Amino acid sequence: MEGSLSTIALTDVLEVVHSNRGTGLLSLGVPQGIGRLPLELRFVEGEVVGGAILDWEGLEAVSTFPLHARKGQFSFGLQPVAGVPLLPFKNFMGEWARLGEQWNRLRAQIDSPSRVLDTPKAKEPYGVFMGGRSIRGAAKAWGVPLIIAMDRTVRGLEEEAIAKLRKYAWYGLRVRHPASRRTQSDITDSYHLTAVLDGSRNLGELIQSGISLRVMREYLVQELSTGELEVPGKGWLLRDLLWEMEAEESGLVTGEKKP
After folding, report:
1. DSSP SS3 for 256
2. How many other CB atoms sit within 10 Å of the CB of residue 28?
3. What is the value of pTM for the model shown?
4. How far is the CA of 147 from the CAs of 41, 50, 118, 239, in angstroms?
5. What is the pLDDT of residues 210-258, one digit of tens each?
């Protein structure tokens, strides 16, 4: 089974697999900006037992995928899959819808969970941001789900206890493009990203060297979307980059301080 989400709603596709007690893999892809956001859902007898955006696994990842996407493609293939349901199907659908709405609300205030924030004093619970920390990092420090960390961070912004920095969690990644060494010898532009992504500097250092944030995002999204770039954490990285680009285009990036 395959088709377009412009002719059959994703919720209907999910219901068909569920009602037919399908066991296999449902692959989804929706266009987002210059990239493409993928999602794979694993079904056992019509129940969802797993899901992932690339290597970002679980209900948390699934909830960030647009349940009511009006564009994109889907395909379902029968194959052996094992596992226990994440939730009973109707509960799973309800939770996906609820969390999706919550993500939309929170992202009106913060472009992505990779955003780094800072605080001048250790006022709890916001002391984890002292010295600069991303929301993803704060979620781990607090020991809470990412969406709860987002909600807590929005409250901190409203209380003016923390402030956004023009910096993101992915700045700390050291990425080595598989073609970097081969390309290095025949380039004339020192900022050709395929060449400079040789793992010697992290992405933040490359941006500080003169590569624009917009150019870096667009390059990473294109390479991740096509599978040319393989890095640990590529699922959350692609998801956050696409969110950040969407916020930038809509003018939602406000209230920032220089790091």
Report:
1. strand
2. 23
3. 0.92
4. 20, 19, 19, 14
5. 999 999 999 999 999 999 898 999 999 999 999 999 999 887 665 566 5
